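Researcher: Next sequence.
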Amino acid sequence: MKRNDSSIINQEKTEQVKRGKRIKEIRENELHMNKTELAKEIGISSQFLGLVEDGKGNLVYRSIEKLRDLSGHSADYILYGLDDNNIEKTKELLKNYSESEIIETMDFIKHFVMLIRNI
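Model: Next structure:
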């Protein structure tokens, strides 16, 4: 195994642990549910939910979707910890621009980033 591969695996494991902590936080502090209750709602066993919360397992798409609907959090927040409000803030900022203006701006940003990387 290459050193870089090991680094990627460690990063993925760290993200898995963080994700588990977020899910536990949502379950305990927002939904006020025990493991059995949440597991039933999202279609998994309470034992597996325990593994997920301990960073030793991952939810499948359907369970993430159910947790998203139940909690009101975005999948981006559940999976990656990205601020739910950023999506809404971005939509609000962009609503006054046409699709073509947004695409042109994104193209400019891509070119700008490539220029910076080459400096």
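Model: Residues 83-119 form one domain. The chain is about 75% helix and 0% strand.
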